[in-house]
Hints:
Layout: H1 2-9, H2 18-35, H3 42-56
Helix pairs in contact: 2-3
Amino acid sequence: MAILSWLTSKQRFTRKSAIDEFQEFAKAEEKRLRSSDSEFDKEIFQQAVKLVLHKLEPANKDYKP
């Protein structure tokens, strides 16, 4: 039980949404691709990210978890 009291005194742990997780991933992946030796098309990458983010949006925009 000591660990539980310690955790409550620390910052609250929050879960990230799938959108937040994907945005972090996309940012890291873009950085990785830019620094690699392969060709990187920023415009196509951003279009792909935008498409995925659109698919991750909930169908009911009024829904608040």
